[in-house]
Amino acid sequence: MAVFASGSGTNFQALIDAAAEPDYPASIVCLVTDVPGCGAVARAAQAGIPAFVARPRDFADKAAFEAKVLEVLSTYQVEWIALAGYMRLIGPTLLSAYDGHILNIHPSLLPAFPGRHAIADAIAAGVPETGVTVHRVDAGIDTGPVIAQERVPVDPGMSAADLLARVHEVEHQLYPAVLRRVVRGEA
């Protein structure tokens, strides 16, 4: 499995920890990131996981960037991709090569609050609950088939930072568990 991340890498770390369990059905063979120096890169180094770090803007276009990513994934014989805070849309090059084998974790109960600002959007909407969704990735923005969801309560007056912390607690448990089932062919 390759993990794609763009930020601090807390979900990446949860996957590293899960993959260290002797009965976990997948190993993480590389990190792909578009943000040099992000926290996920440090987590990969600490875990001894190779990282491919490249800015898409340094390539002729998205297809060229994804073609290079495909080369890297091929080198490591990657069968599954787990998006863990990867802040880019996956394009046709990767989607066609890994059809049905790219999963994402999103901090809302999709289809509510898709996109980058799900936590802020939930706070602004004043909803009593939001959640976490694990879904297969398609060409849309958080539109792929849902595999699992878990609800997260939103307290009145809760800050975005507090809600994010609550969501992360759920994500760090749900994502490794769902990936375990998916890789085993159970979901």
Shape: globular
Name the average pLDDT: 97
Rg, please? 16 Å
| Secondary-structure class | alpha/beta
What is the first-to-last residue Cα distance? Answer: 17 Å
Helical percent range?
25-40%
Please tally the helical runs, counting DSSP H or I stretches of 4 or more residues.
Answer: 6
Q: Any guess at the CATH architecture?
A: 3-Layer(aba) Sandwich
The CATH homology group name? Formyl transferase, N-terminal domain
State the major sheet. 7 strands, mixed
Highest-level CATH class:
Alpha Beta
State which percent range the strand residues make up.
15-25%
Number of strands: 7
Count of structural domains:
1
pLDDT under 50 segments (min length 5)?
Answer: none
Report the order of strands and helices.
EHEHEHEHEHEEH
Q: How is the CATH topology named?
A: Rossmann fold
Widest sheet, order of strands: 3-2-1-4-5-6-7
